[in-house]
Amino acid sequence: MVQGLVNRAKRYVQVIASHGEDGQVVPLAIKWDDGRTFDIDYVKEARRATSLKVGGTGIRYLVTVCGRDTYLFYENPKWFVEEKVVEMP
User: Fold this and answer.
1) Rounded to an integer, what distance in angstroms lies between the CA atom of residue 1 and that of residue 4?
2) Mean pLDDT of 23-39
3) 13: how many CB neighbours lie within 10 A of its CB?
4) Which residue ranges make up each domain of the chain?
Protein backbone atom coordinates (compact mmCIF):
# COMPACT_ATOMS: atom_id res chain seq x y z
CA MET A 1 0.00 0.00 0.00
CA VAL A 2 1.43 3.36 -1.03
CA GLN A 3 0.81 6.17 1.38
CA GLY A 4 0.43 9.77 0.26
CA LEU A 5 2.44 12.74 1.42
CA VAL A 6 0.88 14.82 4.16
CA ASN A 7 0.88 18.56 3.68
CA ARG A 8 -0.98 21.27 5.54
CA ALA A 9 -3.52 23.81 4.32
CA LYS A 10 -5.18 26.75 6.02
CA ARG A 11 -8.76 25.75 6.80
CA TYR A 12 -11.13 28.41 8.09
CA VAL A 13 -13.61 27.06 10.64
CA GLN A 14 -16.45 28.26 12.82
CA VAL A 15 -15.61 28.47 16.51
CA ILE A 16 -17.93 28.68 19.47
CA ALA A 17 -16.14 30.87 22.02
CA SER A 18 -16.63 32.63 25.32
CA HIS A 19 -15.81 36.34 25.45
CA GLY A 20 -14.98 37.66 28.90
CA GLU A 21 -15.53 41.19 30.19
CA ASP A 22 -11.74 41.61 30.21
CA GLY A 23 -11.61 40.87 26.46
CA GLN A 24 -10.23 37.36 26.86
CA VAL A 25 -11.49 34.94 24.19
CA VAL A 26 -11.71 31.24 25.11
CA PRO A 27 -12.61 28.77 22.32
CA LEU A 28 -15.11 26.09 23.39
CA ALA A 29 -15.82 24.09 20.20
CA ILE A 30 -14.81 23.87 16.53
CA LYS A 31 -17.47 23.43 13.86
CA TRP A 32 -16.58 22.09 10.39
CA ASP A 33 -18.48 23.17 7.30
CA ASP A 34 -20.03 19.68 7.02
CA GLY A 35 -21.83 20.28 10.33
CA ARG A 36 -19.62 18.20 12.64
CA THR A 37 -18.81 19.91 15.94
CA PHE A 38 -15.84 19.02 18.15
CA ASP A 39 -15.73 20.16 21.76
CA ILE A 40 -12.43 21.58 22.99
CA ASP A 41 -11.44 19.61 26.08
CA TYR A 42 -8.69 21.98 27.26
CA VAL A 43 -6.99 25.20 26.26
CA LYS A 44 -3.36 24.61 27.25
CA GLU A 45 -1.84 27.83 25.92
CA ALA A 46 -2.77 31.04 24.15
CA ARG A 47 -0.18 33.42 22.71
CA ARG A 48 0.53 35.59 19.70
CA ALA A 49 2.27 33.47 17.07
CA THR A 50 2.65 32.75 13.37
CA SER A 51 1.66 29.54 11.64
CA LEU A 52 4.89 28.35 10.05
CA LYS A 53 3.07 25.56 8.18
CA VAL A 54 0.32 27.51 6.38
CA GLY A 55 1.05 31.20 6.99
CA GLY A 56 -0.99 33.69 8.92
CA THR A 57 -0.55 35.26 12.31
CA GLY A 58 -2.73 35.92 15.32
CA ILE A 59 -3.48 34.29 18.64
CA ARG A 60 -2.39 30.64 18.59
CA TYR A 61 -4.29 28.37 20.95
CA LEU A 62 -2.87 24.98 21.86
CA VAL A 63 -6.05 23.00 22.44
CA THR A 64 -6.96 19.39 23.17
CA VAL A 65 -9.76 17.93 21.04
CA CYS A 66 -10.79 14.27 21.43
CA GLY A 67 -7.63 13.64 23.45
CA ARG A 68 -5.24 15.07 20.82
CA ASP A 69 -3.36 18.36 20.88
CA THR A 70 -3.70 20.72 17.94
CA TYR A 71 -3.29 24.40 17.15
CA LEU A 72 -6.23 26.73 16.56
CA PHE A 73 -5.53 30.25 15.32
CA TYR A 74 -7.59 33.40 15.82
CA GLU A 75 -6.74 35.73 12.96
CA ASN A 76 -9.25 38.45 13.87
CA PRO A 77 -12.07 38.09 12.81
CA LYS A 78 -11.50 34.55 11.43
CA TRP A 79 -10.44 31.24 13.00
CA PHE A 80 -8.37 28.61 11.20
CA VAL A 81 -6.65 25.26 11.72
CA GLU A 82 -3.70 23.66 9.95
CA GLU A 83 -5.62 20.96 8.10
CA LYS A 84 -3.81 17.79 7.05
CA VAL A 85 -4.03 17.22 3.28
CA VAL A 86 -2.97 13.85 1.86
CA GLU A 87 -1.52 14.02 -1.64
CA MET A 88 -1.25 10.76 -3.51
CA PRO A 89 1.85 10.28 -5.70
Assistant:
1) 10
2) 96
3) 16
4) 5-83
